[in-house]
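Board notes, transcribed. Complex of a protein with zinc ion.
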Amino acid sequence: MYLRLLEKNQDSSEKEKQNFLSKSLEYFHISEKMMGVKRKKVTLVFGEAGIFALGTALSLIKGDQEQSNKYEEELLNFESTVLSKEFDSNEILYGRAGYISALVFAYKYTMNSKLLETAEKIARLLIKEGKKLQSPSPLMYEWHQSRYLGAAHGVAGILWTLFMIPNIMNDKEIRKDIIGTLDYLITLSFPSGNFPTSVGRERDELVQFCHGAPAVFFTFLKAYEIFKDKKYLEVAIKCGRVTYERGLLKKGLGLCHGISGNGYVFLYLYSITKEEKYYSWAQQFCEFSWSKIGLSTIEHPDDPYSLFNGLGGAVCFYVDMLSKIPKFPCFDV
Ligand SMILES: [Zn+2]
């Protein structure tokens, strides 16, 4: 969150920027100290790899190239774990796709091509993994015996990470598989515009970043930008509408299943369509989240201050509302 504040406030005074940087470093070092010896969590959101990716970026911003290189090396050391057959998770929150996010996050700072090369290796394995299951979809994945669809645990999130790797997106066969998977996903949408949490689950229920319409929205909007096919924009707009109608959640302010995660849907729609209506929807979610009624109806989340489940994510959303340029933390890296 402090890193976002630093990056979004480049016009602030030197003193303020230093304050954001030192706060970022302070919390980073606490996370570093809390890291276990067994480094098995490989994702940007939940894992040691994420801490090393952040360390790579922060050290570089601080001007410590040597330390940044050390963290980058540690980050790259996860490659063998993630490529191993024993590693059984592919999704963003705990799996291979989440390692890709960590690598690409660090790459945006260091521009070290080794990071992208490693990400590409993982992505090619993800394509292979996606073809193992019997499914009408060219790519499908299972996590805890469910074929989840959404951003956090499912195929939409995995596609999102594939979009980030140029060599993958330049591969004609892979593009075909991705398009086929997107088109298959469309067939699963409910008449309401919402999406099931997993294949075969018929309850039109959850509307949040981890499950339901917001969980596939980001992938469809990005697919529209990449493939220029209007049908993907139409799906994204439908997802936006159902998120507006049913997405004012009472589960906290967080990104994963809270108001700010859903608010991002409208800010992204606004950024692509430039329709004021969507910015106004985002504003309404924003205002509700800190209103007396909003705060009183919001149940306490598990991690009230965290980036993904708590106030940290909400602050990033508010900051992005001011600039009108959305960048969903730890997801849109
Ligand atoms: Zn969630």
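The chain has a mean pLDDT of 94. Residues 133 and 140 are 7 Å apart (CA to CA).
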